[in-house]
Amino acid sequence: MATLVYLEDHEGELVKGSLGVLTKAAQLGDDVAAVVAGSGVKELAPQAGRYGAKRVFAADDAALASPLPQPRVDVVAKLIEEQGFDTVLFGASVLAADVAAGVAARLGAGLNWDLVDFELRDGELVGKRPALQDSVFVEVGWKGAPRLALVRSGTFEPSESGGDAEVEDVAAEIQDFSRGAEMLERAHAESEGPSIEDADVIVAGGRGLGDPEKFALLEELAKALGGAVAATRAVVDAGWYPYATQVGQTGRTVSPRLYIAAGISGAIQHKVGMQASGTIVAINKDPNAPIFEYADLGVVGDLHEIVPKLTQLLRDRG
Amino acid sequence: MKVAVLVKEVPETSARTRIDPGTLRLDRSGSSALNPFDAHALEEAIRIREADGEGEVVAIMMGPSGAADSLRKALAIGADRAVHVVDDALAGSDLVASARALAKAVAREEPELVLLGQQGGDSDGAVLWSALAELLQLPVVSQAASLELAGGKAKAKRQTEYGYDVIEATLPCVVAVSDAINEPRYPSLKGIMGAKKKPYDTVSAGDLGLSADEIGEAGSQTVVLALADPPARGDSVKIEDEGDAADKILAYLAERKLV
């Protein structure tokens, strides 16, 4: 198996999720290479050796400065064809998912996504993917090479067990249509606001709050529990609460001892950001909300009544 | 402006969906509906036409003949025309095989903008737009939480792991919108009545010039091998609020020494 792992970079660092996939790939086989595509990334490339890459292909080009998918499709697809990689793994992110799907379409390759595990079975790669809101798992495979896979974000922790990697330069040959999108403003990490990643207790709110002002109910409960307030993507996108507090695939990944979800339906995008929490309590008026599938304590009821009562009870305890 | 909106039919969220253990495909025999994520793309297309005072919204769906009601719903909501790609040969198409068929259907229309919702509601897959853009050789922007069109360009705010990017793409292009972009409208009675008179084209794989080895199971490089049970979770408790839910939550937390 000749494996290539796509490494994403952000603000001068290799992204943890992609290093986790590299770590896992190196545990399955010796012949693991990595590719990093960006501007100023050549100096990051040797780091991949520590996570198990024997070779790292670095496409370092000003045309790759913005985190846009299509120029990266050009680089990765060409590399796969030239080097004959039969397995190509991506750690899921907004960028990596778009790169993976573009590469699959260009090469006519099979892409399995949202994998939470993969293994070699009689020499064949087999992936495991949850489906139908994680109510069932399917085992997926590929008919032929190259086999492309997107691994669910946060699935594998990176660990340094490798050594040195040989770095090879790759020329970036960008197609005309890949230059059709341009980044006018680039997101930068927002440092203001409470840090939810360090919180022991999180009280999170979603659309079920009905109104941005109702976050006050959650703030009071969080205060009584000594915790922080978090939000879902839906309410952050709607401008109800700051992005720095967003839990989920495109937000923070948290694992507090206690996670209270109020008015959150529990979409997969949210789940992946909080499923590692110790105890999950969900309050939702819809008895069919997917969040009840993975809550330790599910409460069907109106959060506008339950949350203030709970806050008062906690205060009474002193 | 001519806008193509890709829609699909998915099982209703309230329906008990399952995977057929025999075929390892989604059992679509239950109650189905227009993918709620696609309603946002359709809404955005209708708003563009309304703002321009002209133009056309073409809803394109790939799916079995039984999915026609969902496509007609797109007409009732406000699409001007429907294109239904339907062919037994398409069954079992994976991402790339589906993208091939849809790319051909879109290319025939020569739209200036192609809109998609942020994910297929049934598979949680969120990758189609990029495969489609690649086959159409058009720029792509995903996760658009806002969209502005001016001067032959589409400007979108994209949410990523790090906050919001602003991306501009030249038209024609492919844009996948997030569900935060708008609040979709419901079909009006007038819309439902009017939908029956709107053009509804049915096209086969052959009409699109697709060969049998490009689509369906033959054209797919991925396979589903087996069904497995999800990892076991600890005991979970579900209660209904009878006025004492707060007390019960506190007792639960106290028992586990979480308060």
CATH class of the largest domain in chain A: Alpha Beta
User: First CA to last CA of chain A: what distance?
Assistant: 61 Å
Q: Going across the major beta sheet of chain A, what is the strand order?
A: 7-11-6-1-4-5-12
Summing up helix and strand content along with how strands pair, one would put the structural category of chain B as alpha/beta
Quantity of strands of chain B, as a count: 13
What is the distance, rounded to the nearest whole angstrom, between the alpha carbons of the first and last residues of chain B? 58 Å
> For this structure, what is the CATH homologous superfamily of chain B?
HUPs
What attributes characterize this protein structure?
heterodimer, A: about 325 residues, alpha/beta, Rossmann fold, 2 domains, 7-stranded parallel β-sheet, 5-stranded parallel β-sheet, 7 helices, about 30% strand, B: about 260 residues, 9-stranded mixed β-sheet, two-stranded antiparallel sheet, 6 helices, about 25% helix, globular
Written overview of the protein:
- The complex is a heterodimer of chains A (318) and B (259).
- Chain A has 7 helices and 18 strands.
- In chain A, helix 2 crosses helix 3 and helix 4 (215-225) packs parallel to helix 7 (303-317).
- In chain A, strand 14, helix 4 (215-225) and strand 15 (228-231) form a beta-alpha-beta unit.
- Chain A folds into 2 domains: 3-179, HUPs (Rossmann fold, 3-Layer(aba) Sandwich); 201-317, Rossmann fold, CATH 3.40.50.1220.
- Chain A is α/β, with parallel strands linked by helices and 318 residues long.
- In chain A, the strands form 4 sheets. A 7-stranded parallel beta sheet of chain A has the order 7-11-6-1-4-5-12, with helices on both faces. A 5-stranded parallel beta sheet of chain A has the order 15-14-16-17-18. In chain A, strands 8-9-10 form a 3-stranded antiparallel beta sheet, with no helix packed on it.
- The longest helix of chain A has 15 residues, at 69-83.
- Helices cover 25% and strands 29% of the residues of chain A.
- Chain B has 259 residues and is α/β, with parallel strands linked by helices.
- Chain B has one domain (2-231): Rossmann fold (3-Layer(aba) Sandwich).
- Chain B has helices spanning 36-52, 68-77, 95-109, 128-136, 189-195, 245-255; strands spanning 2-7, 9-11, 32-34, 56-62, 81-85, 113-116, 140-150, 153-160, 163-170, 173-177, 200-203, 222-228, 237-240.
- In chain B, strands 9-8-7-10-6-1-4-5-11 form a 9-stranded mixed beta sheet, sandwiched between helices. Chain B has a two-stranded antiparallel sheet with strand order 2-3.
- The termini of chain B are far apart.
- The mean pLDDT of chain B is 91.
- Classes of the chains: A alpha/beta (318), B alpha/beta (259).
- Chains A and B meet through helix 2, helix 3, strand 7, strand 9 and strand 10 of A and helix 3, helix 4, strand 7, strand 8 and strand 9 of B.
- Strand 10 of chain A pairs antiparallel with strand 12 (222-228) of chain B, so a sheet runs across the interface.
